[in-house]
Amino acid sequence: MKATSLCHSADRYPPPHRIYQERAFHLEDSASFRAFARLPWGWSPKKSVLHKTISAIRAETWEDINRMLLASARQDGVETGSVMRLDSTVTAALIHEPSDSSLLWDAVRVMVRLLQQADALGSAILWHDHCRAAKKRARTIQYARGRPKRVKHYRELLKITCKTLGYVEQAAAQLPLAAGPAGQLWQVQIRHYRPLIEQIIAQTERRVLAGEAVQAGDKLVSLFEPHADIIVKGSRDVDYGHKLNLTTGRSGLILDLVIEAGNPADSERFLPMLERHIGIWDQAPRQAAVRRDNEAASAYCLVTECS
Fold first, then answer.
1. What letter would DSSP give residue 215?
2. Residue 204, pLDDT score
3. What is the pLDDT of residues 115-139, one digit of tens each?
4. Whole-angstrom Cα distance, residue 296 to residue 178?
């Protein structure tokens, strides 16, 4: 895909969950969408092509594109940066609802897949596929009533996970003798997944067996999206993904966007976002709108008085 077509295809819809499937559908179904995306007549990309090409664009590149759009808007008088509205939202990670049992089941099936790959690479260790047993216990935990019953099945599931991890460690100790890029790639996967699986085992033992409360920042909610955070906004539902702080102008354009680490309070992020706005536009905004419970309006008054 050409760069202009790629950017227009990526810009049409926001990017969570079923985004690539939806984009592929609309690019094939809508002539106006194809024209907006600058695509050749009679051709539309599949969702796999969109996923591969759009995912290849780095965050720094998207920020540079946004800066170029803002510069053009400023030159044409569309946006001056004199008005700023700060909002926060959450972009959800593409993961299932996390639980200790489902994470352990994910760990077992990933390790079995790695062991099968090790066999194809020449590993000679003896191991047993515990996928069915792990899945059965994860399902049993899901429907078990009462903590004693759940703890019993958790112990069995932890035992299966640790045993499978032992098989993987044996294979990892043996396969460095095997030459070739395939063996090196396998070792890279082991180095990626091993600490995550060990973290899943540790947090399950702490929460389920020891009854310890694990802080949100210490929890791993997905083996496949380990960067996902636990986001709780007030008393509403819990989201798993990343918190976004963004500013918009009078024109409706997005002036700035920051992907936050963890779940910082909105009031803590007002001044840093204001400083970023000043850095982009070389001036402080005359008006700034925030949520009523942000407590940032008084902070902005202090800043404007000092300036």
1. P
2. 95
3. 999 999 888 889 999 999 999 999 9
4. 59
pTM, 2 dp: 0.76
Residue 17 has a pLDDT of 46
pLDDT digits (tens, 9 = 90+) for 228-283: 999 887 666 788 999 999 999 999 899 999 989 888 888 888 889 999 999 999 98
Q: Which long-range contacts (CB under 8 A, 24 or more apart) does 217-225 make?
A: 217/262, 220/103, 220/196, 221/93, 221/95, 221/98, 221/103, 222/93, 222/95, 222/98, 222/103, 223/103, 223/106, 223/107, 223/110, 223/193, 223/196, 223/197, 224/95, 224/106, 225/93, 225/94, 225/95
Q: How confident is the model at residue 35 (pLDDT cuts 50, 70, 90)?
A: confident
User: Distance (Å, rounded) from C-alpha 40 to C-alpha 2?
Assistant: 10
Contact 54, 20 (CB under 8 A): yes
Which residues lie below 8 Å from residue 37, measured CB to CB, with a gap of 6+? 5, 8, 9, 12, 27
Beta carbons of 253 and 273 less than 8 angstroms apart: no
pLDDT for position 273:
92
Contact 253, 81 (CB under 8 A): no
| Count of residues in the chain | 307
Question: Whole-number mean pLDDT of the chain?
Answer: 85
Distance between CA 9 and CA 5 in Å, rounded? 6
Does an H or E element contain 232, and which?
strand 229-232
Mean pLDDT of 92-117: 93
Q: Which of 97, 89, 62 is nearest to 225 (CA)?
A: 97
Give the contacts of 236 (CB within 8 A, at least 6 positions apart): none
Write the single-letter amino acid at 297.
Answer: A
Task: Confirm if 35 and 26 have CB atoms less than 8 A apart.
Answer: no
Contact 179, 147 (CB under 8 A): no
Residue type for position 16: P
